[in-house]
């Protein structure tokens, strides 16, 4: 018999408050980042701060990525593999509309609930074989991997010259991608629909329209309204757009809408 799935639902504001609280607590146990971590590649083949041929750390004596990444989104299809997850909804006006699904965190330590053991020592992942895409895409030995390890003091800091060289490379290869995505309630109301009764007739059904708003390259003064949709016709998560250019996001929307 399949075990029941435990789903905890948060309104977006409540979830972000929790993330901020965990982030503040994390700041007390880590060093200042030398480089913008979200700009460091998760691919070993794209290494800049250390040669790709450098020996990779041992995941089983590390675990910092599982501790540091407070939001790990999972697709709704993939979530069937997990016994527990968190659903995020916009607010009280759309209590059944999920705009993100994430792996749960321990609300005391902030670490992923599937992480077992001690950081930097004997550590393991309870769902390693079924870990979600963001975890699979995070390659051990990548620049971002080393960046997180330096945060926790598991590796020595980069020299000043290495930091300058890495920053120059990051700036020269910078692509304008979506760094923040939010799905908010645009409006609610009613619309006419066939009643479905043998006698025919028209009835009204509730409708909720959502808006996808994004920010490119952390430019907080330039919020772009990317897309609006009705929840019964389309389904999106905020993480669907992160890391994409505006053109790529628009193409994704067009493709999905045409398929649906």
Q: For the report, how would you describe the main beta sheet?
A: 3 strands, mixed
* Total strands: 8
**Uncertain residue segments:** none
In N-to-C order, the SSE pattern is EHHEEEEHHHEEEH
The level of helicity is 10-25%
- Share in β-strands: 15-25%
Quickly give the structural class. Answer: alpha+beta
Calculate the mean pLDDT score and round it: 91
Radius of gyration: 21 Å
Describe the model:
With 260 residues, the chain is of the alpha+beta class. It folds into two domains: 6-172, no CATH class; 178-259, no CATH class. 23% of the residues lie in helices and 23% in strands. The protein has six helices and eight strands, in the order E-H-H-E-E-E-E-H-H-H-E-E-E-H. The protein has helices spanning 12-27, 64-68, 133-136, 143-151, 160-172, 246-259, and strands spanning 6-11, 84-89, 100-102, 115-117, 123-125, 178-194, 202-216, 223-230. The protein has a three-stranded mixed β-sheet. A three-stranded antiparallel β-sheet has the order 6-7-8. A two-stranded antiparallel ribbon has the order 4-5. The longest helix has 16 residues, at 12-27. The two termini are 34 Å apart.
């Amino acid at each position: 018999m399949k075990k029941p799935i435990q789903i905890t639902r948060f309104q977006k504001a409540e979830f972000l408050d929790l993330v901020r609280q965990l982030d503040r607590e994390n700041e007390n146990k880590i060093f200042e980042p030398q480089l913008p971590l979200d700009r460091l590649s998760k691919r070993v083949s794209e290494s800049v701060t250390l040669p790709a041929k450098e020996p990779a750390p041992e995941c089983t004596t590390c675990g910092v990525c599982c501790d540091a990444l407070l939001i790990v989104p999972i697709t709704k299809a993939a979530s069937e593999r997990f016994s527990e997850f968190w659903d995020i909804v916009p607010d009280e006006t759309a209590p059944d509309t999920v705009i993100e699904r994430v792996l749960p965190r321990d609300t005391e330590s902030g670490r992923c609930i599937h992480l077992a053991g001690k950081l930097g020592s004997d550590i393991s992942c309870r769902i390693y074989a079924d870990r979600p895409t963001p975890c699979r895409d995070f390659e051990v030995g990548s620049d971002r991997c080393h960046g997180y390890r330096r945060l926790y003091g598991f590796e020595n800091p980069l020299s000043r010259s290495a930091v300058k060289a890495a920053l120059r490379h990051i700036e020269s290869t910078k692509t304008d991608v979506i760094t923040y995505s939010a799905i908010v309630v645009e409006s609610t109301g009613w619309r006419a629909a066939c009643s479905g009764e043998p006698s025919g007739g028209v009835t009204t059904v509730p409708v909720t329209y959502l808006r996808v708003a994004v920010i490119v390259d952390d430019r907080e003064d330039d919020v772009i309204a990317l897309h609006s949709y009705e929840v019964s016709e389309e389904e999106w998560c905020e993480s669907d757009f992160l890391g994409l250019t505006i053109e790529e996001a628009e193409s994704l929307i067009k493709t999905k809408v045409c398929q649906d």
